[in-house]
Amino acid sequence: MKTINHSIGGQWTTGNSGLFQKIYNPATGEQTAQLVLGEAGEVDAAVCAALAAFPSWSNTPAAKRARVMFALREVMNARRDEIAQTISAEHGKTHDDALGEVTRALEVVEYASGISTHLQGDFSRDVGPGIDSCAERQALGVVAGITPFNFPFMVPLWMIPMAIACGNTFVLKPSERDPSSANLIVELFQQAGLPDGVLNVVHGGKPAVDAILDHPGICAVSFVGSTPIAEYVYTRGCAAGKRVQALGGAKNHMIIMPDADLDQAADALMGAGFGSAGERCMAISVAVPIGEETADRLVEKLATQVTAMKIGPSTDAEAEMGPIISLEAKERISACIAKAKAEGAKVVVDGRGLVMQGYEDGFWLGGTLLDGVTKDMSVYKTEIFGPVLSVLRAKDYPEAVALINAHEYGNGTAIFTRDGDAARDFAKHIQVGMVGINVPIPVPVGTHSFGGWKRSSFGAHGIYGPEAVHFYTRLKTVTSRWPTGIRAGAQFTFPNME
After folding, report:
1. Residue from 48, 134, 238, 281 carrying the catalytic annotation
2. How far is CA 318 from CA 73, 97, 313, 314, in A?
């Protein structure tokens, strides 16, 4: 049985906790490994290694740090299939979906490769008599990331490349459900020439998270996960004096206007609602068709496609959706469907009870389509994080916009329409951080930044892109004057450069 260890200071170690957790293949339900679980001692060892590596790494020229990112890009491209297989073996997503995760991670690595430009400061000569002023951004020190199961490779690489390219050292606490991707990231960075101690991985649960949030040697924490935990991380981390960005959950709506291409909209909803088994914070989980005619036609198209969706393991090249991450998640999602039916929703397609021949012990659910959902139902209020698409009918566009703006989450949203006026109004007035116009999953590319509004995000900065430079550095402004042989005498008024 394979044991998945921590990586601390460039060495693989089981640590001293003596705690282990089973790791499963979601497609088969079989145990594939045991994971060592760290606690405060392992976190402290990782922080000490990162602190020891920080002086040398932060003083390494930015151009030289960028060369590690260039090398990482080549290593990742050469090992794309291996990376995707590692993701799928523990998460369950299809091979093509896992390859897409690698591609989006590469975007951030490529952006981090330009760190010399991103860190360029400002200089102003003669802001006063013989006085010059310059501004620069400096690394914080040791920073940490706490990442979720749904993108075990991509989300850590939303954080690590920008953080270390800026000159920080890093401690990663990945999800304990699919940890092998995090260890593979360490191997890839080692192959790219990253010095020991710059990147460390500690596996664990809440004790490890709390140790990160409380450790005085950690300056900043990045988090992606559910809203209750995001709020906890933000509150506790800030109380400990840390800079924190904590990205939480979502309930993403897609408005379908009467003039939309319904075939295009249905295809978009299939991919956005059921891709990766709906285990995405940017999944569309609520379709909002405008008018009864639009709704009836859309539900008819969706019912046909959901029923025909190809479900299978990642080794099946034709599979469009894989299993759920765990048995517990499968049971929770099934209970949500049952409650929706009890509250009055119509179960148009029921994904419960799916049995995969040859994979009977796997964590399988089919796609579920619910119609007649209302804003008072629990299936609408909560984040299901599974292959469940709800249809909530709106009589007109203003009602749909008001519905979205009233929801506690504000992560992503979309509108499908041919009407430029409606699209422009939607982009301006919708109270959501990431907006798609005829784009169902509007995840920003690596040159922009990712971040939701309302209870989908805690903290002032988005993740990756330009926002990451500001999060992982702090501003220093230097005002200087060199002796000119002229003595001005003591000045008791506030400096005004005149």
Report:
1. 281
2. 28, 12, 9, 9
Domain count within the chain: 2
Structural domain contains residue 285? yes
Q: DSSP 3-state assignment of 284?
A: strand
In a shared domain, residues 294 and 240: no
**Do 227 and 127 belong together in one domain?**
yes
Could you tell me if residue 385 is inside a domain?
yes
- Averaged pLDDT of the chain: 96
Do 177 and 279 lie in a common domain? no
Beta-carbon contacts of 62 under 8 Å, excluding residues fewer than 6 positions away, are 115, 116, 119, 165, 167
CATH of the domain at 382: 3.40.309.10
Sheet holding 243-247, edge to edge: 11-13, 6-8, 199-201, 169-173, 142-146, 218-224, 243-247, 457-458
Say yes or no: 164 and 235 in one domain.
Answer: yes
Q: Does residue 442 lie in a domain region?
A: no
Please give the pLDDT value at position 73.
98
Under 8 Å CB-to-CB from 284, ≥6 apart: which residues?
Answer: 252, 253, 254, 268, 269, 272, 273, 389, 412, 414, 440, 441
Query: Model confidence over 363-414: pLDDT tens digits?
Result: 999 999 999 999 999 999 999 999 999 999 999 999 999 999 999 999 999 9
Burial class (CB in 10 A: 0-12, 13-18, 19+), 239: exposed
Q: Are 105 and 76 in contact (CB under 8 A)?
A: yes
pLDDT at 485: 65
Please report, for the domain that includes residue 156, its CATH number.
3.40.605.10
Residue ranges making up the domain that contains 391: 252-437
Q: pLDDT by residue (tens digit) across 153-186?
A: 999 999 999 999 999 999 999 999 999 999 999 9
Domain boundary among 409, 437, 465: 437
Following DSSP, what letter does each residue of 144-167 receive, concatenated? EEE--SSSTTHHHHHHHHHHHHTT
Type of residue numbered 9: G
Confidence band for 494, pLDDT divided at 50, 70 and 90: confident
**8 and 143 share one domain:** yes
Give the separation between CA 270 and CA 367, rounded to whole angstroms.
9
Quick one: pLDDT at residue 493?
Answer: 75
**pLDDT value of residue 487:** 65
Is residue 281 flagged as an active site residue?
Answer: yes
The residues, any chain, with a CB within 8 Å of residue 420's CB and separated by 6 or more, are none
Provide the pLDDT for residue 497: 60
* CA 343 to each of CA 292, 372, 377: distance values in angstroms, whole numbers, following the listed order: 21, 10, 7
